[in-house]
Amino acid sequence: MTSRFGAVASLVLVVTMAAPSSALARHDDGSRGGAPLLPNITTLQPTGLRMDHSNAGARLLRFSNTIANVGAGPIELQPRKEDCNGDGNPANDRTAIQRIYIDADGDGVYRRSVDRAADPRVAGCFEFSVAHGHWHFHDFADYQLVDLTSGLVVASNDKVGFCLSDTLHPYPGVPGSPRHRYYRGCRRNSVQGQSVGFADIYDWYVYGQWIDVTGTPNGDYCLVTTADPANQLLESDETDNAYSQQIRLTASGVVPRADPC
Ligand SMILES: [Ca+2]
Ligand SMILES: [Ca+2]
Ligand SMILES: [Ca+2]
Ligand SMILES: [Ca+2]
């Protein structure tokens, strides 16, 4: 005879045994299971530091910024046609869908021909950049100048947009890094991204590659360059996205310093 408590115990057992299969969500190809191959975004040391002056008289600290993917899977962003920023105009933006690839063969390494299923998630917005003449993923980086003594941000350039693409290949030894560039489009309907081991550089001469330091006193500061500052993108390590570089602003320009911030 089954007691009341025995029946409850059986029910719990059934629920417990049923949980694993029902907990496996379907991927975009209908398959289930497999571990996610997450990207890992990191910022490399800024280069090409220099001081510039705009026609309007602003003092601009310029530099080249490089963002790399050292994770197990690519950063991949797919545009979806809709009014992402809610301004009523569906033509000036796209929703950016991050695709997290699944390790179908369980080897921990991403191979495009094998690991085809993905989990899509809404990550942010693409917007057309009039200054650059192409489409950007909004808010992919920010640049801050920090006072060494107080730790306060004295000047910044927030919400810097990027067209994510395979520009440089600084880490070809990362497992799964392809030999050739894959992501290279910056059009309205381009799938943007960074392959494993690849990086994207925005050079110092590109419009917007600066911090406006008009009125900032000369002296020593920490230049902090951060990728994915609003954490729009899912990745394997959220703690290594910033690079800190001590610099000195002088009457004649800017000098990188060897001392840590
Ligand atoms: Ca990271
Ligand atoms: Ca819009
Ligand atoms: Ca694999
Ligand atoms: Ca992130």
Descriptive notes:
- The protein has 261 residues and is mainly beta.
- It has a single domain (36-256), classed as Immunoglobulin-like, CATH 2.60.40.2360.
- 8% of the residues lie in helices and 41% in strands.
- The chain has one helix and 15 strands, in the order H-E-E-E-E-E-E-E-E-E-E-E-E-E-E-E.
- The chain has one helix at residues 4-23, and strands at 36-37, 41-43, 47-53, 59-69, 75-80, 93-102, 118-129, 134-147, 153-162, 192-194, 199-202, 210-212, 219-227, 242-250, 253-256.
- It is globular and about 60 Å long.
- Mean pLDDT is 91; it is low at 1-21.
Strand content: 35-45%
So what's the CATH class? Answer: Mainly Beta
Provide the CATH architecture.
Sandwich
What would you call the structural class?
mainly beta
Terminal residue distance: 73 Å
Helix content: under 10%
Number of domains: 1
Main sheet properties: 10 strands, antiparallel
What's the quick description here?
The protein is mainly beta. It has 1 helix and 15 strands, in the order αβββββββββββββββ.
Notable traits:
five-stranded antiparallel β-sheet, ten-stranded antiparallel β-sheet, 8% helix, 15 strands, Immunoglobulin-like, 261 residues, binds calcium ion, single chain, mainly beta
Topology:
Layout: H1 4-23, E1 36-37, E2 41-43, E3 47-53, E4 59-69, E5 75-80, E6 93-102, E7 118-129, E8 134-147, E9 153-162, E10 192-194, E11 199-202, E12 210-212, E13 219-227, E14 242-250, E15 253-256
Antiparallel strand pairs: 1-6, 2-4, 3-4, 4-11, 4-12, 5-6, 5-10, 6-7, 7-8, 8-9, 8-13, 13-14, 14-15
The structure holds calcium ion (CA) (4 copies).
